[in-house]
Amino acid sequence: MSSPGILYVTMRPNDDLPPAQFHEWYNNEHGPTRLRLPQIFANGLRYRSTDSLDPPFLAAYDVTHMPHLLTPTYTCLRANRSPREAETIGQVKVDRRFYDLVSAKSSPDFTPVESLSDEEAEGSVLVSVEITLNNFEGAEAAYTEFLLGEHVDMLSRIPGWRRTRLFRTSVIEDVGETKLLALHEYSKENGLGGPEHLAAASSPLRNEIFAKYVHSKNRRTYELFYVFGPGPRDLHSLSDLPAGTPKFVSSGDETPTLTTTTTSPGPDASIASYIQTADSLTIPYLLEGNPAPDAPVVAFSNSLLTSLHMWDPLVAIIKAQRPDLKILRYDTRGRHALPQPPKPATVEILAGDIKALLDALRITKLHALIGVSMGGATTLKFALEYPSYLSRFIACDFNVTSSAANTEAWKERTALAESEAGKGIEKLAGLTVGRWFHPATVEKKPDVTEWMTRIVAENDVEGFKYGCQALWDYDLKPAMGGCEVPGLLVVGDGDAKGALVRAMEGFKGLVGAKGVELKIVPEAGHLPMSESPEAFWEAVREFI
């Protein structure tokens, strides 16, 4: 049987600890590390005081089962702190408390804070009341009955009241004194201080209970300012770090892995980290660009066999031309090792991976999603399946249906990659890039050809084997007419020697009620954004 509760942590940073260092560490390292344990932590919320009292910061984590906090899964987080965390936490006065949940009552339309968007959640009010009772028999029962009876009923009449929960010092807490903790949650616009609140705070029963049973009361008021997800995303604090601050690498001096987080501070701040999907796939991502929390986000979905770095030339242009945008890239399923036992990818699964990434980063709506090849099919599928997450999309160099001939070609390519104990991927890389790229690219830009060949050759062979099966049997045509998201199609003029231009001309009128425009990039093949980034940007800049 589960024993839910809360980890309740108040903090007072030393005066000489730069605020950006404190917040960046907490938001990009400490909090996400805990939210990557969903079996333990249901959420992670940060509050700042509005009562001018110390300590000024509160972090609250709902815990699914309090005894989990005694297991190595959790205790090892504190025992194995990074040097950066140890150095920062040494400059913060921390008071950690464990409380067991006693009871909860909420408004009929209550939604947990973590399920709200940042815009909806930030500014939510928390009133925290810690009670120490007199050592009288029946004191706890009497106070609990009052709180969950009359008091909550009267609080529920206050405009903006959302929920009241009662906790008591956890049985796992090694302290002699038991305290009760009442957490009252309100929307940012509320009636605190109004007549309903004053009535609840001064009823005859309330006065009687406090006079007889309550030894002391500590009341604090807070406002919510940050909600954790399992993916680090705080570019704002990272960009505000003092000049000369070194980058943070979670793996220390060891070789970075798929589960390494690297935060690079300064005006060109970036976060390279990862999320895990519901089926335990690790997806690396890179977040950069405009550091403002509310900056519009453009995301990119790469092609099969490539990585998030295939977008490097285009991203450099976008960062220069559109500094208002935040940029999110990730390695699509099949680039790296797969969970065991592996299973074939589908276009539906690939679209779901994007949703999982956005949810982990608490991005409720993209300004744009841009995908190419398998990423193009994924982009259109995402627009069809999750239209509320997307303002517009650009799908490049792909087809909306698979074919038997294509399936056989992928099987042959898989066999080549697996040959020579997996060394065949290097042969496949050369053949693939030669097939993808326009003759002008191969002739005039040998450095680009070599760069892309290296990217392809570094692909995980098993990942490719199961990832390419997303292209074996799919058909987006039946749903395309119902697409509600504005879109643009782009293709290199030499892709498949012009065959893909003709194919995309054939289905551009079937996307949405009125069809979409098709832009053709000259002297480019299958990856026009990598081969001719300036020409690709010219084709899409007005749409973005």
TrEMBL record:
InterPro entries: AB_hydrolase, AB_hydrolase_1, AB_hydrolase_fold. Residues 246-269 are annotated as: Disordered. Residues 310-538 form the AB hydrolase-1 domain. PANTHER family: AB HYDROLASE-1 DOMAIN-CONTAINING PROTEIN, HYDROLASE, ALPHA/BETA FOLD FAMILY PROTEIN. It comes from Cephalotrichum gorgonifer. Transmembrane segments: none annotated. Pfam families: Abhydrolase_6 (PF12697). It comes from the Eukaryota. This is Related to 3-oxoadipate enol-lactonase I.
